Amino acid sequence: MAVAAITPDYTGERLDRVENFHGNIVVYVGWDRHLMFCSPIAFATPPDTTFGKLQDEMIAGAYAQHPDFAKIDWEQVCWLLNGEPFTPDREATLAAQGVDHKSIIRMQTPGLEGIGGSHS
Amino acid sequence: MAARKLNLKERYSLLTRDLDWEYSYRDKKEIFPYEDFEGIKITDWSKWEDPFRLTMDAYWKYQAEKEKKLYAIFDAFAQNNGQQNVTDARYINAIKVFLTGVSPLEYQAYSGYAHVGRQFSGVGARTACQMQSIDELRHVQTQVHAMSHYNKFFDGFQDFSHMHDRVWYLSVPKSFFDDARSAGPFEFMVAISFSFEYVLTNLLFVPFMSGAAYNGDMATVTFGFSAQSDEARHMTLGLEVIKFLLEQHPDNVPIVQRWIDKWFWRGTRLLAIVAMMMDYMLPNRVMSWKEAWEVYFEEAGGALFKDLARYGIEMPKYAATAIAEKDHISHQTWSTFYNYGHAAAFHTWMPDEKEMDWLSEKYPDTFDKYYRPRFEHWREKEQAGERFYNPTLPMLCNTCQIPMGFTEMDDPSLIAYRQSVYQGERYNFCSDGCKDIFDHEPEKYVQSWLPVHQIYQGNCGGADIEKVLSEYYRINMGKDNLDFHGSPDEARWNAWHNLESAEERLKKAG
Known about the structure:
Chain A has 120 residues and is of the alpha+beta class. In chain A, 11% of the residues lie in helices and 21% in strands. Chain A has a single domain (19-117), classed as Ubiquitin-like (UB roll) (Roll), CATH 3.10.20.560. Chain A has a five-stranded mixed beta sheet, covered by helices on one side.
C-alpha cells in the first residue's frame, strides 16, 4: 500500500516529473563543508548542458562570493554523483554521464576548510 | 410548574451524548465513511471519556467574557501607541513570522476539526472536535485582530493569507497541515491533537508568548493568555485520543506508533522556525532554544512517553536525532533566512557583538566552532557595504519542504542528504525522518508542491525571480524584504525614538 487512502488504488499526480520542466532537468549542486551557502543549489538546465558549462558558468556564478572559491584547484576536486564517486567529463553532456533529473552533484575541495576553518 | 433546573451532569449529558441517535434506515458505514480505512479498530465508542465537561451554552458564555477583556486591552494598546513600546523594531519580525506562518494554521486546524467533528461515529469525540474547531476559528480571528495594529506601522503584514499559500518558506507550515488534513480522521487526531497540541505545543506557544512578554508586546501576550484555557482543553483531548485508541485494540498500537514517529518528526522540523525566532529575533531573550527544548521536550516529553510505555508505545523514532539537533537547528535556520533575506517578507540581520556572546555562552559546544566565524564574516561584508545574499534557488526536502540546510549530527559540517528512487524517479530528503515518511506513503508525497520546482515549471508568474517575489508572492520589494538595517521599518523606529541609524553613526565616526 503506497498510501492510506479511502479510494482503492489511489495514485498521486507526480508534480515534479521531468515533462513539467519545459525541456530542462533539475540538477542539485552542493559544495561540501562550505556552509556559508546554506543549502545545495537547485538548477534547471537542459540535459545536453556540458559539464564544463555547469562548472564554469553555473557553479562559478553561484559560489563566486565565497572567499575559498578563487582558491579551488579544479584538478583536485572530488566529485560525487548521487552519493557515488564520479569523474566528470567536461566535454560530455550531463545526460551522457548519468546526471538525470533531480540528481545531486557534490564537490569536495580538500585543503579548503571554509571561513576561519569553520567549514562555513 | 416551573421547569426544574438541570444539574451540570444532566445538562452535559443532554447537550452532548444525547445529541446522538440510532441510525435506522441507513448503514452506519455510509454515514461515517472515513472511519475504517486507516486500519484503526474501535470496538466500543462508549468507552470514550470526554476529556472536558463543557457544554455549548457554557462555552459561549465563557468565551464571550474572555473576548470582552481581550478586545478592551487591544483598544488600550492601540490608543497608547503600544507599537512604540516594544523593545526594538527587530522584534516585530517575530510577529510577522507568527502571522504569516502560524495564524493560518489555526484556520487550517478549524477546518480540520470541523471535518473530523463530523466523521467520528462516537458522539463524544465529535462534540469535543466541534468545540475545538470553534476555538481554532476564534484563535485565528483574535490573532489577526491583535496584529492588525502592527500592520499600520510596519511592513510585511499586509498580505499574510495570500503569502501563506504561495511564499516558499510558508509552504513548510502549510504543507504540514495539508498533510494532516488530507489524512484519515484518526491520523489527524494523532498528528494535531496529540503530537502537536500535547507533545510540542509548549515549544510553539510559550516561546512566542513569553517572547512577547519580554519584549513589551502587550497585544500578543494578552492574546496568549486568552487562548491558554483553550490550549489546556486541546491538550486534554490529545491525551484522551491516544489512550482511547491504544485501549480499544492491540492492533492499533503499531499504527499509532508510526503516526507518532511521523508527526513528532514533522513537528520538530516545523519548530525550526521557532528555534531561530528565540535565539535570533528577540531583542530581550527569554531562554535559548536549547534550554526550551530540554525543559519542554526532554523533561516533559520524556515523562509522557514513560507513562505511555504501558501501552507498548516508545519514544518517537528519531527523538535522538532531534535531541542532538538542539545545538544546531536555530543557527542553521537563521543562516538560511539570512542567505535568502531578499526573498523573505520579514527582515533578517546579523546579531551584534553582545548577542553573539550570548549565543557562545548558550551554545558552548557549537556556536564558536561552526557558526560564529560565518556570522562575523557576514557582518564584515555588511559593514563593507556588501551584505551577502545567496543569488541562487535552494534545493528543498521533498517532505518538510525546508531548504536542505540541516547537517549530519555526527558531522555537523556536512549537509545531510537522503534519496529514494520511486518508480524510476529520484526524491531527495533532509533527514532519515523525512525519507521514512515518503517511503511509507510515496503516492502522497509525489504530490509535494515544492516552491523552487514550481518556479522552474513556470507556475509562479514566469522565469523572472524579481517578478515571482513582487507579483506572485506580493512582497513589497525594498520594504518587506532585505536586511533590517536600512529598512523603512528601522527608519520609522529611529524617527519615533530620535535614534540615528547605524549608517549615520558610521558616517560621523568616519
